[in-house]
Amino acid sequence: MSASIVTNQNLNNMYQSVVTASTASLFMGGALRAGVDLSNVTVLNNTLGGSLENGLHTAIHYYVGDPTTQLLQNMGNFGTAARDPLFYSHHSNVDRLWEVWRLNMPDGERADHTDPDFLNAEFVFYDENANMVRVKVSDVLDNQKLGVYYKKGRSDHVWINYSPPASTNESAVPVALSGGVPLVGESPLNGTISIGTNFSAIVKRPSEEKPSKTLEVLTIQGVQVARDQFVALVAFVNIPWATENTTTDSAEYLGTFNIVPDPAKSSLNTNVKYEIGDNLKRIGLEKEAEVVISLVVTGSNATVTIQGLKIDYEDQ
């Protein structure tokens, strides 16, 4: 693969994960409330990972983890990541990207979550005098109050203004239908779907006209996978039968959901969301009633299953 393709893949990953993920839920993830039994959730109350956490952040853990160890220690494993000094500079940059997302996007300033459960959540730390202190999330949302300032990244403008080109110019639905690609709807209409190494489906878009101040969002419902090895679930639109060799530098790439090993947890069950309106516009599919969604499993031979695929409008 050429250096230019690798560069554009990195730029597009940043663009799709930060620029198009314009709401707090898409960027940061959804609510995880105390008392929720994660072993007994459904797609209606499942946790929601955001593009910052499960996309960009987790990818770096994987890239830096040692592939010669069983669980990618140190950075590539949830239980050992903090042993690597890079962990701290990495998480500082994650915090910087949060600041960029809030204040430096083309569509203007963006808003954090306003749910009281988020703002009033408390964490226990030891201060510089070894005294235990409680800190609320609402106490640390303003970096200026913390005395934290980030210099503007010299290359931020490159990925913020990246314009992913379309590699296709017409709907892939007719080709997919002739090739036997199934129509998949929202859960629970489908049962459990095993992705294998890759899976393609035809998914209906909303029939009503898009309301103002909304985003068109794809939800991959009920993603389930064991946490004993690294797994990446890569999503595309309008590319039937995409594989691990399909490049991610074009508008057809929606994003990657990365899962690092965690010995303390046997499995992960979650929903994954991507804003797809920008992608469809770039490809020229705004008027199509259905689109082809393809999912590719990379990183390992882990078994990944889903419960459904849904495209709907969500408030900005």
Lay out the secondary structure:
Layout: H1 3-19, H2 24-28, E1 47-49, H3 51-64, H4 86-103, H5 116-119, E2 122-126, E3 132-136, H6 143-146, H7 156-160, H8 173-178, E4 193-194, E5 198-204, E6 214-226, E7 231-237, E8 253-259, E9 267-275, H9 277-283, E10 290-298, E11 305-306, E12 308-315
Parallel strand pairs: 1-9
Antiparallel strand pairs: 2-3, 4-11, 5-10, 6-9, 6-12, 7-8, 7-10
Helix pairs in contact: 1-3, 3-4
Can you characterise this structure?
By secondary structure, the chain is α+β, with helices and mostly antiparallel strands. Helices cover 25% and strands 24% of the residues. It has helices at residues 3-19, 24-28, 51-64, 86-103, 116-119, 143-146, 156-160, 173-178, 277-283; strands at 47-49, 122-126, 132-136, 193-194, 198-204, 214-226, 231-237, 253-259, 267-275, 290-298, 305-306, 308-315. A four-stranded mixed β-sheet has the order 1-9-6-12. Strands 5-10-7-8 form a four-stranded antiparallel β-sheet. Strands 2-3 form a two-stranded antiparallel sheet. Strand 2 and strand 3 (132-136) form a beta hairpin. Helix 1 (3-19) packs antiparallel against helix 3. The longest helix is centred in the N-terminal third of the chain and has 18 residues, at 86-103. The radius of gyration is 20 Å and the shape is globular. It starts with a helix and ends with a strand.
